[in-house]
Amino acid sequence: MKKIGVVGGGHVGATTAQRVAEKELCEEVVLIDILEGVPMGKALDQWQSAPVELYDTRIIGANDYGPAEGAEMFIVTAGKPRTPGMSRDDLVSANVGIVKSVSEQIKKVAPDAIVIVVSNPLDVMCYVAKEVTGFPKERVVGMAGILDTARFRAFLADAADCSVEDIQAMVLGGHGDSMVPLISYTTVSGIPITQLVGGEELEAIVKRTRGGGGEIVKLLGTGSAYYAPSAGAVQMADAIIKNKKRILPCSAWLEGEYGMSGLYVGVPCKLGENGVEKVIEVELSADEKAALEKSGAAVKEVMDIVKL
Question: Which domains does the chain have, with CATH numbers?
């Protein structure tokens, strides 16, 4: 891949640009932000780390979308961050306008691009990006499930006293307090998690996972998480660029899958060179199905207040 645009030069965007470059996923990364000089300064600093980290991907900064013309992929991180006491949904009015503007520019300079959305509230911002760009559903996808699952796996690894590499898990649903960690699909090297971690402890981990972003926001005081979100976005980019056909939980546009239509929600997706190549429908217990439907309804409620 020749060029990837990263929109938003804050902590998430800058860390994403650095990860993309270090993995050499493209020839050039364009970091875009409206703050004069900021993306240029960060890009220059990052490029100067290349001789130490040994990568040849060039990082450039820009205050407009011109240098990103023809980019095959955009990772959108632009928007206001959460502050203590603020839910992801509280960000709707602030970030709809930002993501709408970003989407208009992407459509103009790169009409064939695949778009990975990271901006919050994630599922609703995916909807905004899809509607404004007019891109097919396969080419607009959200990073949420990977982040939520990573938090879940990290907490489980602590509880089971084992490597994070051996935890297999999936978190579905909207990227918010109604997300659905699937205990029935959670294993440690194939061993059901319920054999290694007690019921009450599992319930506490599920609760902590749902509030994982808020826990970090509260600790930071200003701003929100960026190391794990950027890692999740770049894992998706890697799967798409290398046509890996990886099955990862992502926010995808549903048209009947899981009994839902006309909304973005976190589900298992096969990611390849075309973006979301397939939504994988897995069997859910009655409780999991009800929880996923409730989560979808929460996303739809916020979507319905968006005016484009």
Answer: 3-142 (3.40.50.720), 145-303 (3.90.110.10)
